[in-house]
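Below: protein 1.
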Amino acid sequence: MTLGTWDRIRSKFFYSSTATGITVVVGFLLAIIAIYLTDWAVLNAVYRADAQACYESSGACWGFVAEKWRLIIFGRYPFDQQWRPAVGTLAIVLMLVVTACPRFWNRKGVRGLIAGWCVASAVFFGLMYGGFFGMSFNGTDTWGGLPLTVILTLLGMTVSAPIGILLALGRRSKMPCIRAFSVGYIELVRGVPLITVLFVASFVFPLLMPSGMRIDPFWRVAGGIILFQAAYMAETVRGGLQTIPKGQFLAADSLGMNTFQTYYYVILPQALVAVIPAFVNSLLSTFMDTSLVTVVSMYDLTGALSLALGDANWRDFFREGYIFIAAIYFVASFVMSRYSQWLEKRLTGNKKNSTISI
């Protein structure tokens, strides 16, 4: 350890007698917890899919994950056809990675991204539904696990974003009808919990539809998530719009820009950069909230774990299952969080290029 490193540690943890005492006590407790977790999760753990060995061991039973991971990841999708949701989800994730690369954020690249997303969406839904090229048809009632979580999150964020932007602009509109509608929608939806929206979409909405008309439960739930998230997205965007100084509007007017050009070229680029942290928070919230679809008999990543725990031989090892699920959520959330921090720094550095000086 270099002298500079020790100086930084001392300045953070041992800068006074009180801080030294707290550091020693907390360090001691953390060491005890680390020793216990290492003993339980690694040294005495059972890694093979042997329920009897798990009951005889005092450590973790990772054999439960080894035995049930496919059920947890893919839910009730037919076992011998689970390559289909795997390939479809991989196509979506690859497009997310490509879309996150700034090199494609130009006019030519955007056209390529649109085409790529069309192909990826067709691959996902084509493989999930099937019914062609010799593949059996699988309705949305068999969808579950990670693919369901990913697609609900993707639909909830991508479709709600433009709706939220329009609602935010409508709330600032000078036209009373548009402003009243936007305010009423936002306040009504934000005053209702998501679980209520899901219940309405699943059980109440079908009762209001004309006789003989039916919408698939998956799309009703996806629509509920989209409409719910749009209200929160609207408030997020409105917060970003309020950070824009009035001089930007005056500068756009002096250049002869109309309202659409002002918002499209000047205001929205700055406002959306300002709300990147809030946007990512909404993304993570949507990613987590998909677990609520379990209450309407749809088994996402968390709900699929309950299916795995239905096996009486493995029911007592729920802790290992929840740790496995938590690890997936943590990795995905950590990656999105770190990317948002990098993106915020990158776009903030270029913010001056998108402003108009007066």
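Below: protein 2.
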Amino acid sequence: MSFIPPTLLPVVFLVASNLFMTFAWYGHLKYPNKPLWMVILISWSIALVEYCLAVPANRYGFRIYSAAELKTMQEVITLAIFMVFSALYLKQPVTLNHLVGFAFIALGAFFIFKGPIRV
């Protein structure tokens, strides 16, 4: 994977991982009449792919980023992907409340990556 810079490699894996996980967790909501056992099996199959991407993301990422930074990246990526997924796939509007909440989470991410605050 030398064509992707080491600082971006975990991000690429986390984005791909979160795409799969979002479909695993929420994709079935468009099919409320499908049997629960079926959507569980399909979701688990999709989640297996997600784990195959998330584990390397964290393994490679931990060489560069702290655990807190990796988790923060994962959460911000998850929310960004979910907002797009919710709007495009589930046809649910993104409201001002969602955007304000996301902005506060982004502010928290800023402080995680900013480094220690010296007092």
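The chain has one domain: 9-114.
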